[in-house]
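To whoever is on call:

I kicked off a structure prediction for a single chain this morning and the downstream step that reads the tokens threw a length-mismatch warning. I double-checked the sequence; it's 403 residues and nothing unusual in it as far as I can see. Pasting both halves so you can look.
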Amino acid sequence: MQTKSRSSMLVIAGFLVCGLTVSGCGKKTAANKPPAGPPEVGVITVQTQKAAITTELPGRTSASLVAEVRPQVSGIIQKRVFTEGSDVKAGQLLYQIDPATYQAAFASARAAEARAEANLIPSRLKEERYRDLVKIKAVSQQDYENAYAAFKQAEAEVAAAKAAVDTARINLAYTKVTAPISGRIGRSTVTDGALVTANQAAALATIQQLGSMYVDITQSSSDLLRLQQTLSSGLLKKGGAAQTRVKLLLENGTPYPLEGTMKFSDVTVDQSTGSVTLRSIFPNPKQILLPGLFVRAVVQEGINEQAILVPQRGVTRNPAGNAMVMVVGAEEKVEPRVIKVERTVGDSWLVSDGLKPGDRVILEGIQKARPGTQVKAVPFGSKPAEGVPAAAGQPAAAPAAKK
């Protein structure tokens, strides 16, 4: 009985010794675990770079050449000989006005011309005869002067008759209303049988050339002055001797595939809006652009040779509304930095003050980057450092051996 009790006590003692051993091993393993290091943050190092500075402005399209078709003589429209919305050529017949009265006027003018030419012949012969007779005193000087005056009057009547014939011929030609320019013609405002008058206010139709289009954009006078000051200070430089290039965004936000050029800037500021009109021209071979279309023009203002750009994801706002970034400063500690931004360039902010080349701006891990805390800066977009727990289902890397 005593032997069995002693055996039980030995078993219990063995279990206690094993438990203490296991507990001691666990404490030793926990004691050997390295302490957690500073959190990692992804940073970029600020560098100056060349950047094209652009501005986006609203505008409207208009045809490069527009002609309103109006009658130059009065009459009844006999026939419209074009298809609305089609392309027409310069000189193509569009309307035919009843020519009957103008044909009669032309014939009358030619008859008057023939009568004047017939009256000219005896007047000229009489003047020639009296010119010889006055030399031998066969007729008086007064008679010769009367004959000469009658001859000159007959010549003037012939000239007037010729002018009347030309006028009648022109009016007769005007009964054929032709296209003054080549282009796309719109709807007709009159039909066959309509009465039209010379130089009437309402146009019969409008022709527009759509092969190239003007885009009239507006820029505030303050922005224009700022741009001029920036160019004069040397911060911005013109992009070469070529004309300023302009890109276009259509009303639905899609980019227009062809670039345009800036033609001129208006010399007058609109007093009601305080803006200046800029005109650019765009090729339009497929006639995607139509007159009156609302667009947004992206105008290249110049080149900034020493631009500092910071991705927008790294810029926040403080309670005062000022732009702010987190930078890794001395002793690898996080420092908040208030900056001044001018505009966006692509997906970055153009910084004019608050940063200098070499500064390290935090882009990733900002939630861990509290001001004054020490962090480990790694290049933005790099792979996680060793020691970071492996993904689920993959074995962790073996710890390095201690020296």
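Update from on-call: the warning came from a stale cache, not from the record. Cleared it. Sanity check on the structure: The radius of gyration is 46 Å.
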